[in-house]
Write a structure and sequence with these properties.
mainly alpha; 4 helices
Length: 124
């Protein structure tokens, strides 16, 4: 798979490492690409925060407002976490099927299976 051309250093590393170990559907490759861009964005935000935090502590009496940068960094981190969780679930051919969760599982597949089981019980 070709690496997206517009990724930064961290995004490229994340792309190479991820496609090296995961087999993903095309839709999940799109999500991985976005996750790589977010990783690059987090590096940029981190750099901005480091520069700004030096200004906060310079003793001049002027304080930089870093609340917006911190909030954006937190939002990007949360988005990255969610996207990576989805990408991990999108692996194809990565091993044996997961075991069926215990009764009362929360997944859609589990719910569908429980409905089908109850219909069979009601019919027979």
């Amino acid at each position: 798979m070709d690496e997206p051309a517009d990724l930064g250093e961290r995004g490229r590393r994340m792309w190479r490492d991820s496609v090296g170990v995961w087999s993903l559907t095309p839709a999940h490759l799109v999500l991985l690409e976005e996750a790589c861009r977010i990783a690059d964005r987090l590096d940029l935000l981190h750099s901005m925060l480091r520069l700004t935090s030096a200004d906060v502590n310079d003793g001049s009496g002027q304080f930089a407002d870093i609340a917006g940068l911190l909030a954006e960094s937190r939002q990007q981190s949360s988005a990255l976490k969610l996207i990576l969780a989805e990408v991990r679930q999108g692996q194809v051919g990565s091993g044996p099927a997961p075991e069926r969760p215990a009764e009362g599982g929360a997944g859609v597949a589990d719910l569908s299976q429980r409905i089908a089981d109850r219909r069979r019980q009601a019919e027979g």
